[in-house]
Amino acid sequence: MRTLLRGGRVVDPAGGFDGVADVLVTGDEVTAVGPGLTPEPGTEVVDVTGLVVGPGFVDLHSHVHSIAGQRLQAMDGVTTALELEAGLMPLARAYAEAAAAGRPLNYGFSASWGAARAQVLAGIKPDARIESSLAVLGNPAWQRSSSPTELAAWLSLLDGELAVGALGIGVLMGYAPFTEPAEFLAVARLAANAGVPTYTHVRELVEVDPAIPVDGSSEIAMAAAETGAAMHHCHVNSTSGRHIERVLTTLDRSRREGSRVTVEAYPYGAGSTAVGAAFIDPERLRMKGLGPSSVVMLESGERVADEARLRELRRVDPGAPCVLEFLDERVSADRALLHESLAYPDAIVASDAMPVFWADGIHESTEWPLPPGGSTHPRTAGTFARALRLMVRETGAWTWLEAFRRCSYLPARVLDDVAPAARRKGRLDVGADADLVVLDPGTITDTATYTDPTRPSVGVRHLFVAGVPVITDGELRADALPGRPLRGEPR
């Protein structure tokens, strides 16, 4: 199969090119880029005049493991959606089930620190499903520190997952915030020795809880410096809240000193997690200046009335998904904090996309458009289009070249050492993977809201995954499931 995208504004963040050119795709590879390319007979020619053509977005932080959820992400310009913060276990089963069901987008997983600890410390056998992972987040049995024997046991589990191709280690430290800091250093050493990154949801900041064993963001910087590991700081906007300036200063100092620290952010003032998470505890909410009314149950839409109701929800169904409002997007000062996290040099855009649920816990649908009544966080459908609207169209903080650098090129570079196949992603030059997005620069925007979270973004006119069209003329192709696994090199 050959496709020629003719006359678009081609943006290649790898080479710094931004200009009008044609792009020739042959099979799953970009085989020519330049003006006035002459197609061979049988080549499909697509006129993309006036549109922006760039490498598809690489999402390092997606908890979407379904065709339905990935279709929403496709409409947002994503071509590769990876579960790296939480990870899944057992890894082989996660990859096998995704391959058997088919995926619109490329996919991949890290080794799950949380699942490994839960298996050793609480006897909870992982089953490679994000729904099960959410259900155990509120279980205190795995949140304690480990004995030396237990530490060795779950480190061995992680090492086994790395040996069969995990894309690094996902660390949900924020869900077990009082564990011994030496354990985190042990994980960093394991990652450094294996040559893989870590992806961490950090523990609380010292400004929030002076009794925390170590400041969450400082811990990342210290572990990177001590071990040499490549350490990725997940959703710095939500874990930093109103302390974002101090956190970014800490991370900037670490990077200037040579540590391998990368940062991601998403453009929303509310996060989403399981209601049983440690940081949804009423007392910990008060430390952040929040309260029960900052918590909205995702499936029912209930805004929690008081602490008694919050404790009941946490006790009855700790895995129930909820939204936590940590900033007020209606307030200019809070919007400025979100802008600061996105504007930070080299900050990567990542969605933290959540599963889509319907009534009775159903989390998959092969219908398109999606059936009504789906529940999720709007970032699942709108993160990248929203970031482009805010940072390119409305404020001019990013050029299109910079936007593709943050949405495509930089996230792919996080994976270069662990997955050499990633080196062909996030770029638009000869030899690059044919994972491409073609968007309308004047109309690209999010439409998903907290009350209607499954409304697809608009403005993505074409999307190719491994050279196969997933979106054509703005319409998703329900028969397209070309997603391929991205894996680490087995050891």
Per-chain topology:
Layout: E1 2-12, E2 17-26, E3 29-34, E4 44-47, E5 52-55, E6 57-59, H1 67-75, E7 78-83, H2 91-101, E8 106-109, E9 111-112, H3 113-122, H4 130-136, H5 148-163, E10 169-171, H6 181-194, E11 198-200, H7 216-227, E12 231-233, H8 236-240, H9 244-256, E13 261-265, E14 270-274, H10 282-287, E15 295-297, H11 307-316, E16 321-325, H12 332-343, E17 348-349, H13 379-394, H14 400-414, E18 436-439, E19 460-465, E20 468-472, E21 475-476
Parallel strand pairs: 1-4, 1-5, 6-7, 7-8, 9-10, 10-11, 11-12, 12-13, 13-17
Antiparallel strand pairs: 1-2, 2-3, 5-18, 14-16, 15-16, 18-19, 19-20, 20-21
Protein architecture, described:
The protein is built from 14 helices and 21 strands. It has helices spanning 67-75, 91-101, 113-122, 130-136, 148-163, 181-194, 216-227, 236-240, 244-256, 282-287, 307-316, 332-343, 379-394, 400-414, and strands spanning 2-12, 17-26, 29-34, 44-47, 52-55, 57-59, 78-83, 106-109, 111-112, 169-171, 198-200, 231-233, 261-265, 270-274, 295-297, 321-325, 348-349, 436-439, 460-465, 468-472, 475-476. The strands form 4 sheets. Strands 1, 2, 3, 4, 5, 18, 19, 20 and 21 form a 9-stranded mixed beta sheet that branches. Strands 9-10-11-12-13-17 form a 6-stranded parallel beta sheet. 56% of the residues are buried. The model has no long low-confidence stretch (mean pLDDT 96).
